Amino acid sequence: MKFFQDPDKPLETCQEISCDKCNVCQDLNCHFNLHQLIQFLLNVSLVILLGGIGIYYYNPLLLIQWIVMFLLYFGLVEIRVMCSHCPHYAETESSTLKCWANYGSPKLWKYRPGPMSSAEKIIFILGLLVIWIYPIVLMMLSVNYIFIVLYLVFSLLAFNIMRKYMCSQCINFACPSNTVDNSIRGKFFKHNPEIGDAWEKEQNK
After folding, report:
1. Quick check: 30 and 5 in contact, CB under 8 A?
2. Which single residue of 3, 67, 172, 176 could bond 86 by disulfide (Cβ 3.0 to 4.6 Å)?
3. Domain ranges in the chain?
4. pLDDT in tens, 65-102
5. Does pTM top 0.85 for this prediction?
6. CA distance 62 to 64
7. Helix ranges, 73-192 (H)
C-alpha cells in the first residue's frame, strides 16, 4: 500500500509520460508527501484544539456533536462539492485521497473536472462557517473571552499560512481558497487538456 503517489509518475489526467523537465512542478504540488501532510496538520491542530477545549468547558457532550459535524462535513460533504473537482480525485490507484488536506477520505463521488458551481461554493463556505463558528458561540455562552481571542487569532494565522504556502501551489483550482496565478494554471491545462477543456467549457457558458 502506497501512502502517497509516486512523485516521478505523472498524474492520470496529465498527457505527459514523464515528469522530467516539467515546467509546472516547480510552481505546483502535483504530488504530495508526508512533510506536507505534517505541515498542514500542525497548522490547523492548534485551532481545532482551542475550539474543542472551548466547547468542552461549556458542555462536554456538545463536543461529540462538533466532532460528528466535523467528520460528516470534511469526510463527505466537502469531498463532494470541492474535492471531486481536483485532479487527484481522478487517480485510480487508490480509493482514498492522498493529499495534505483530506488525506484518507474515501472517493465516494464521481470525478468532475472543471470549476465548482455556485451552489457548491455556497455549501462549501457555509459548511466551513458553521463548523468554525460553533465553538465561538459556545465560548460566548460560557463567557470564555480569552479562548475566543486565541481561537480567532490562531484561526486567522492558520488561514493566512495555508493561503500563502499551500493554496498558492494547489492544483485544485476549483477551491475558493486557491490562489494559483492564471498563467501557471494555463501551463497546467496544457499538460492536462481534459481539465483545461472542462474549465473553458464552464467559463464560456
Report:
1. no
2. 172
3. 34-157+168-203
4. 999 999 999 999 999 999 999 999 999 888 899 888 88
5. yes
6. 5
7. 78-81, 118-141, 145-165, 182-191
